[in-house]
């Protein structure tokens, strides 16, 4: 058997060594590396001529595919380190479980649950139409018998990406309805639109929303490292003038 050389995409050990420190400096280092890596592997794609349709239905010229980050050992190590470095996880001791949003939030949530050595669930966007007919998967036999299966459990929701925040909000509501004490929602990436915090402000009790990095930060890294072409930077600049109106009539 031929074993692959340990290239950049397979490195991870050195990131994992001190990813528990949770300092701002560490968070900043990981944020830089994850943004640079996302650009390097082509996770950020631009297609103004044939726009992407987002989950919210909007037509947009940009698509950030975090699933590609999860493909690589280095990407998984950076995601793990990014979550662990976040100040919101300073109270990690009080978190009893991580719940991922289906489907792209499942892998990062499982990676984090493993790193913290705690339980893992995932939340479907709708109740499954067959089998156990569940919306929240991973309930123990005992939990499944309860009307509020997650009553009293402190759960962190993990999403891969926040655009309007609608998908994460739906999962958060499902967890709260199941009785969970939702301690926060952490995502790998956010576009930084006002829509997401606005959507989350509807939650009662409130749930802090935070991300490892956002579009503004990614563009800063791209400008310094040349991770995006001038043409792509210009496309993004024009789109950002009116992101939700950009796709009208296209
Ligand atoms: O903030 P929002 O406007 O809700 O958009 C973000 C959501 O869109 C994507 O999921 P998608 O529905 O494409 O499904 P997938 O996770 O199964 O790929 C992404 O994984 C987020 O869940
Ligand atoms: O809003 C979305 O659906 C969306 C945007 C994006 O950039 N990447 C993604 O996976 N989903």
Automatic annotation (TrEMBL):
PANTHER family: OROTATE PHOSPHORIBOSYLTRANSFERASE, URIDINE 5'-MONOPHOSPHATE SYNTHASE. Residues 93-189 form the Phosphoribosyltransferase domain. The gene is pyrE. Belongs to the purine/pyrimidine phosphoribosyltransferase family. PyrE subfamily. InterPro entries: OPRT (IPR023031), PRTase-like (IPR029057), PRTase_dom (IPR000836). Its cofactor is Mg(2+). This is Orotate phosphoribosyltransferase. Keywords: Glycosyltransferase, Magnesium, Pyrimidine biosynthesis, Transferase. Orotate binds at residue 163. It comes from the Bacteria. Pathway: Pyrimidine metabolism; UMP biosynthesis via de novo pathway; UMP from orotate: step 1/2. Catalyzes the transfer of a ribosyl phosphate group from 5-phosphoribose 1-diphosphate to orotate, leading to the formation of orotidine monophosphate (OMP). Pfam families: Pribosyltran (PF00156). Its EC number is 2.4.2.10.
């Amino acid at each position: 058997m031929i074993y692959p050389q340990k290239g950049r995409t397979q490195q991870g050990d050195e990131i994992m060594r001190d990813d528990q420190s949770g300092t701002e400096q560490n968070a900043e280092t990981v944020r830089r590396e994850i943004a640079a890596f996302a650009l390097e592997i082509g996770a950020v794609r631009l297609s103004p001529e044939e726009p992407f349709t987002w989950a919210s239905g909007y037509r947009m010229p940009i698509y950030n595919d975090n699933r590609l980050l999860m493909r690589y050992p280095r990407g998984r190590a950076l995601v793990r380190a990014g979550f662990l470095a976040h100040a919101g996880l300073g109270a990690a001791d009080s978190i009893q479980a991580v719940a991922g949003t289906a489907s792209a939030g499942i892998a990062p949530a499982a990676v984090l649950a493993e790193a913290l050595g705690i339980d893992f669930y995932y939340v479907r966007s709708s109740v499954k139409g067959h089998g156990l007919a569940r919306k929240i998967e991973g309930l123990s036999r005992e939990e499944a018998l309860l009307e509020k299966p997650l009553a009293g459990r402190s759960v962190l929701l993990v999403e891969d990406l926040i655009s309007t925040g609608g998908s994460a909000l739906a999962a958060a509501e499902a967890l709260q309805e199941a009785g969970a004490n939702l301690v926060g929602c952490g995502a790998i990436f956010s576009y930084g639109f006002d829509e997401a915090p606005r959507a989350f402000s509807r939650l009662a009790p409130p749930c802090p929303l935070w991300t490892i990095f956002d579009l503004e930060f990614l563009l800063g890294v791209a400008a310094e490292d040349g991770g995006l072409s001038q043409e792509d930077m210009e496309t993004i600049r024009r789109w950002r003038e009116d992101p939700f109106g950009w796709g009208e009539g296209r």
